Structures are given as structure tokens and as C-alpha cells.
Amino acid sequence: MHLSALVVASLASTCLSAPSANVEQQPIGASEPNSIGSTWTRELISLHRHLISTESISGNEYDVGQWLSDHLKHDGWTIETQKVNNDSSRLNILAYPGKVRNADLLISSHIDTVPPFYPYKIHSNDSETIISGRGSVDAKASVAAQIIATKKLLAEKKLKPDDVALLYVVGEEVHGDGMRAANALELTPKTIIFGEPTEGKLAAGHKGMLGFTLNAFGKAAHSGYPWLGRSANEVLVQALSALMKLSLELPKSDKYGSTTINIGKIEGGVAGNVVAQNASAQIAIRIAAGTPDEIGKRVHKAIKAATDEFKTPGHEDEDMYEIVFAGKGYAPVDIDHDVDGFGTITVNYGTDIPNLDKLDGQKRYLYGPGSILVAHSDHEAITLSDLKTAVQDYEKLILHSLS
Question: What are the residue boundaries of the Peptidase M20 dimerisation domain, all occurrences included (predicted)?
């Protein structure tokens, strides 16, 4: 049986509630292989559509979490919600189909996205059905495929209800506060399958991360008399130049390549004719080797050396900058990838894996459909065939984890 426009039309008759945003519905190409069965394919498309259509930019995840909770509860799952940072509008979701909340297998991903919101669209060309919209890859594709794979195995009696639980968290795209909060749930699974876009391969690891804000302090003055002040912008520029030179000297590894520095956001001053009193930059370092502590010390040393020239007699102890680290950061993360039949990949982005405390002997896998190269962009999209393949691959990972 081939998919056709009837697949999209049939979504309106499913048990799922209407999406929270306008959805452009177009026919699905008849050339799509029906690898997981038409019923499961329809449910997969519908679930994926509703997740994307419900805007869930980090900090605004309540609606999508509530919808997903209701959907799983309708299927008979037990739902526990957890406030994040004591905020009742930001909820992690723990769901389990049996009586055991602390199952041997935990399947997890995140339900927040980066801004801005892009609406759901689906269209077909001669060979593919393409689904786009914010979160269509990162990471609502993983969420939808994980749920369908789990439900399919339960329906086929290949998975026992007490063997598995799902954990979907908020805040991954910002500081990982959702997953860090999940440590309080005191879950002790033997295996965790995390979902992020890995191009349908198992990730063997990802780079570490150290993020910080660099604040520069000056003294305001009229731009016609700059010697009466000190430009925070000049202090900042000098410090950033030193960091760019430092990036060429930071540790490398065969597995993860080079440690990189990204200057993501710069602000400073109030007007072109005023010597800037304040300036700042937000910076992210992707660590290929070494520890955040080691690299943080090198950052301090480079910035201090670069800004010493701005000290004036009698003001040697005056603060010209401060470095505010966004947490402790983490070193490169090695991930289990010992499952036959999967290709492997290393990725440069961060995940929630280091935010969840690891138990001795615990196995951790990272897999998901779609490419990180289109995630966070205005052309984020995934093919239906990749989404369906992910269901099959998650089934393999689930069965491997419990074997």
C-alpha cells in the first residue's frame, strides 16, 4: 500500500486534538515506502505535526508539555510532571505505560526549541515527502519517533510495560535546567536512549562546552575628549582579539578535532559620540580536549594580559572586566555505541547527557533522525522516510537495551 493524500486527510479523524497553530496540509507523495505500516505512519505524522505546531521556544514549553501529557494519558500512560526552577509553567514529563516509574530503560529528549517559531509545513516532490517547521528536526522528530517505536513494540508484545519509561524535558536549548532538575526524580535506569539529530547514526561522543559572558567596564566621556574616559568597547575588543588568538592554541583531539571559540553576541555603548561605559559579549567554547577548568584558566590569563594596557596610574586595582561563567561546563562526552547495524558519528553540539547524573555501569546512547546542519535554521526540515526509519532504529535500540 502506498501513502497518498488520504494519509494527511485521515489525520483529522485521529484521537489527537487540533494543533495550536495553523497547519499547511499537502498531499504526501505516493512514492514513500510503507516500512512501518500505514496505521503507525499516520500516527507518526500526526504526532510529529502536533508537536511542531505547538510553539515551545525555551521558557514557553507549557502548552506542548500539556498537549503531550494529555496525548499519552489518553493512551493509558501514567504521567508525572515536575516543576523546573519551581515554575509551574515549565514542566518536565515522566511517562510510563506500566506500574513501574523507575524502569530499566529510560528514553529521553527535549521538547523546547530555539527561536523563532516557524509553522508546520508538509509537501512532496517526485521522490520525497518533506516536513518543515521549528523543531521538525531538533528534537521533535526524535520525540515522535521514540513514542511511536515504544507504542509499536508494546502493541506487538515485544516490550513489557514495566520495562520502559519516557522522560521529556524543557530548557535543553538554553542551560539544560530541565535535565538538571530531573536528577531529583531519582531515576536509576540501566540504559538511557537520548534523542538528538545524529543523521540516523549512533553518536560516539560530543564536544564539551564552556559558556561565559565577558563584561567590560569603562568611564563615560565626550567623544571629543576621549582621554577623560576609558572605552569599555576598546577593552572588550582587545579582550576578544586575544581570545581569537587563543583559539588557535587550545587543545585538539583525533576524535573531536579542534576546540573552537564562538563570539555569539556583542553589545556596548550608548551612542557614537559617547565613550562607552559598558560593553559585553557572550561566548561559547566547544571543547575537543582538556577540561573546562583548564580552559577557563587560559581564558582568564589571555584576557588579563590583553587588557593590562588600559590600566592608568593610581587605578591599577580598578576592575576593567569580569568573566561570568554559565555553570561549570563539561569536558568532551564519550557515548556508548556498541550496537550492530548502526553507523557512528561524533558531533560538535552539546546535549543534556552531561546534565543527568550517571550511574556506575549505566549505558547511554544518542540517536536521532535529521541533520544538525539544518537545525536552528530557517530551513529546518526532515524527510518522512528518515522519520519512519528512525522508528525502526529506535525499536532496534530498545530491544538491544533490554536484551
Answer: 205-307
